[in-house]
Amino acid sequence: MTFAEPDTTPAASLAAAPSGGSSAQPPPGAVVVGVDADLQAMADAAGPGATLWLEAGVHREQAVTPLDNQRFTGAEGAVMNGARLLDGFVRDGENYVVGGQTQEGERRAAEEGLDAFPRAAYPDAVFVDDKPLQPVDSLAELAPGRFFFDYAADRIYVRDDPAGHAVEAAVSPYAFAGGATGVTIEGLTVEKYAAPVQYGAIGHNTPPVGWTIQDNEVRLNYGVGILAGTDTKLLGNHVHDNGEMGLGGSGDNILVEGNELAANGFFSGIDPFWEGGGAKFAVTRGLVVRDNLSHDNNGYGLWTDIDNIDTLYEGNRLQGNSGGGINHEISYDAVIRDNSFAGNGAAVPEWLWGSAIQIQNSQQVEIYGNTVDMTGGGNGIGLIQQDRGDGAHGPYVTAGNAVHDNLLIAPAADAGAFGAVADSDEAALLAAGNSFDHNEYRVTSAADDHWVWGEYYDWESYRAASGQDANSTLVLL
């Protein structure tokens, strides 16, 4: 096949353009929702199948459980904001304090927090001029860029002078809760909700069924931006800067197409290798992830973990994700084709971790037509086997995976590897019908140990020892 040259287009210009979900005027028959209206009351009064049009402006602390087949559409500039504006700060020594803060969101998975975040899993975030502050555990730890929530006294303390700044505290746990079917949400900005870990600002703790969520900007929510369920479509959304993760979900026939996922997984303090990054789906059948841009997330760009089967990843662009590009973990049959990767996995380059395409205890995956550029970090295509037990569709083993017709570029002599490794039953892995062939490798020297088949080899030794890549080509940079 003919290999395309690496895509060097800057990430910002690769974002999917919105298809016009916002509307200048309310659609015919729509219920007009003002910024001070009670959205839940209006949705209940409108009944199933109604269209609700949110006027431009900030709809603050609104949370709604839709009825079947309702449509929520926004005027340009319509913002659903789950935070309370904080005013009335008073000076307290070198700090500033405001009282009356009785909110206390649900705390989940606190044991999965990073050491530097002692209050990971506390969704009660504080923002100054749209930037999240880092919570601390005591007043003594307070410093610029941090806040202390004294829950016993219902007070929030900051070190930075709040005068002249917009200070907000996340209060509402969700904008839209799942439960109804056939709901459409479009053209809205959804921000600053105190969504608990693993819960969505859209979807909350019940993966929506048959929803269409399109052309929204979803940002700065504590947990997950959007949660998807069976027959749900996520189309053309810009999902960025959410605390734990951009997208999540489970169910059958989910479509994720044309979205931009950026800079998710940082401010919650949850370990992104437990759950985080651009997107993570579990227990899906027929998941399609197509033509998305996932970049600069903390963790994996796209991740299927636990009993996913019949998955398709195609046409996606993954760039600068710290943990790697696409990870298909303890899952089954999938196709990963025609995606492009650059600079993923720089945070975890050891062994074959941090691969642009990582197949981890998964079987029957076909990987072809992908362009992987390891400039700036990470590994290429890695098959990894560990002792992970059995799942819904058979054992969690790395078997029957076919890697062919891909372009892999490793421009540094001491970085970037491809192949198969195991820390459990290596002999079984190497005899399990995994194959590499018809790939093109671009490296600086054939003598460098870029190829792994249980152990690391140079080009000729690898092919002789493994029998892999017999029809592949090597190009020296």
Q: Major β-sheet, in short? A: 13 strands, parallel
Span from first to last CA? 20 Å
Spans of at least 5 consecutive residues whose pLDDT stays below 50 are 1-20
CATH class group of the largest domain: Mainly Beta
| Helix content estimate | under 10%
Under CATH, the topology of the largest domain can be stated as Pectate Lyase C-like
CATH superfamily of the largest domain: Single-stranded right-handed beta-helix, Pectin lyase-like
The order of strands across the largest sheet is 1-2-4-16-19-22-25-28-31-34-37-42-45
**Overall tally of domains:** 2
CATH architecture of the largest domain: 3 Solenoid
How confident is the prediction overall: mean pLDDT?
A: 95
| Count of helical regions | 3
Radius of gyration: 24 Å
| Strand segment tally | 49
Beta-strand content bin: 35-45%
Q: Looking at the structure, what is the overall shape? A: globular
- SSE-based structural type: mainly beta
Protein name: Right-handed parallel beta-helix repeat-containing protein
InterPro entries: Beta_helix, PbH1, Pectin_lyas_fold, Pectin_lyase_fold/virulence
Pfam families: Beta_helix
Biased composition (Low complexity): 10-29
